[in-house]
Every structure is written in C-alpha cells, then in structure tokens.
Amino acid sequence: MQKADALYNQITQRKSVRQYKMDALDAETLQKIDQFIQQLVPMDSEIEVTFTRTPYEAMGKLFSIKAPYYMTVASEPTGNYLENAGFMLQQLDLFLPTLGLGGCWVGMAKPSKSVGFNKSHEFIIAYAFGTPEIFEPRTSVTQFSRFPLNKIHKGEQYSELIELARLAPSATNSQPWLYVDAEESIHIYRIRQNIFKGLIFERLNRIDVGIGLFHLYIAALVKGFTPSFTIVETPEIKDYQYVMTIKFN
Ligand SMILES: Cc1cc2nc3c(=O)[nH]c(=O)nc-3n(C[C@H](O)[C@H](O)[C@H](O)COP(=O)(O)O)c2cc1C
C-alpha cells in the first residue's frame, strides 16, 4: 500500500472541503494525483473500476459543489462494487490533504453526457477537489461529529481499530455501519433502511460502508495486521444486514 502511514495520519485530521479557489492546479500536482489514482488498492480486484479526472465545466450543475475538479467513478456493476468504489476513492480523500488540497464526496452530482464511460460500467459517484479557500485540518478527534464508539461497535478487542473507522465520512453523516468483533476478524453490518429511505440511501450507504472499511483496513495495516476481506456465516442482528468480514490472519 503506497504511503500507508501518510494516509493513516490523515484519518484524524481530514474534513470535507466545500469552498475552493477555482484556479487550476499545477501540472506536477495533477500528475501526483493521477499517479496516485493509478495505484489505488481495490477491496475486490476482480471488479473493473475507472476514475476520470473531470473539470467542473463537464459536471452537471444540479447538486454539484463549485470546485475546479471532480474525480468521477464508474464501475462494472457486480458484487460489492459500491463498497469497492467507496474503499478506493476514500484513498484519494486521505491523500489530498497531504498535498495541502481538499475534497468532498458529492452524492447526487453527475457528470454531463460528454464524459464517456465504458458502456458496461455504471456511473457510481463524484468527488469534488481542489485548493481549499481555507486549509483547516482538524486538530482533535473531538472536532468530529460522530456517534460514540459503543453505538457502532459490539465487542472489546478491536476498539482501537474501530475508533479510526468511526471517524470516516458518510453521506449526510449517516454512519450506517456496525462493527462486530469475532475471532481474529470483525464482521461489518449495514443499517437496514425502510423502503422509502432505502430508495435514496441504499446506494450511498453501501459506498459509506466501503469508506469506513478503508479506514479500518489502513489502521489494521499500520498496526501490523495483514487484513483481507471475506464472507462468512454470521449471526443475524435486528435492523442490520451483514456485508462482509475483515480477517486478520
Ligand atoms: C457518499 C457521500 C456522499 C456525500 N454527499 C455530499 C453532498 O452531496 N454534499 C455535501 O456537501 N457533502 C456530501 N458528503 C459529505 C458528508 O456530508 C460529510 O462527509 C459528513 O457530514 C462528515 O463530515 P466530514 O467529512 O467533514 O468529516 C458526502 C459524503 C459521502 C461519504
């Protein structure tokens, strides 16, 4: 994993940026970003994903934040592809502040028709980025508005890791995840939405879970584990549905 420590360090500092200088980034910075994107680590390497650096002018204006650039994501719609997209793009969210830049996931924004995706791919999500009007990383975990650990974690063993997943961003800050300690592993569940909320939130919540899982993954790596993902038989938990398990052996 490239720059694991640098990405890990951003977990406790990052925050969404919604106001940008509209100046273009210099060629060297854009090259660093493009190179970083080429080396993103997937959760599931069988799923084909494409990332397109998209100028603001090529974004549909409905729901978009005014930012000089977007990263738009398209994927083969198969398996845990929404979780995989969240997992991959969160790497950019943690990388940008290391360059003094900022970004924000934008759940409803879409590129205009002129941005062509592979025909077998589905547009997943857009992410705005650029130079923040004010670069203001967080300086304390207390500045994160998040649920307490005991609302999203069952168990004692992996609290230190799950604390870092707790800080992950999510659409409307919904934090739809539940982490359940198991033997050398953690089961991940997602909140079950009712049918109406599900229409809007199901897709976004699956992306959110992937984002949280990237925080968990990088925290595990930095703390010396060898994390991998699997699906196993798990107990049912009321109001939640099982997504997958992260293993540490
Ligand atoms: C999948 C996803 C979609 C989001 N969509 C939007 C959006 O459309 N507009 C917006 O201003 N913020 C959006 N956000 C940002 C969240 O509101 C933000 O991450 C959350 O409130 C936590 O704040 P923080 O990122 O500053 O820690 C989105 C975040 C995620 C993960």
CATH superfamily of the largest domain: NADH Oxidase
Order of helices and strands: HEHEEHEEHEHEEHEE
The ligands found in this model are: flavin mononucleotide
What fold name goes in the CATH topology slot of the largest domain?
NADH Oxidase
Number of beta-strand segments: 10
Query: What structural category characterises the helix and strand content?
Result: alpha+beta
Based on CA inertia axes, which overall geometry fits?
globular
CA radius of gyration is: 17 Å
Mean pLDDT: 95
Quickly list its features.
alpha+beta, 2 domains, 10 strands, globular, NADH Oxidase, binds flavin mononucleotide, 6 helices, five-stranded mixed beta sheet, 249 residues
Could you provide a short overview of the structure?
With 249 residues, this protein is of the alpha+beta class. The chain is built from 6 helices and 10 strands; from the N terminus they run H-E-H-E-E-H-E-E-H-E-H-E-E-H-E-E.
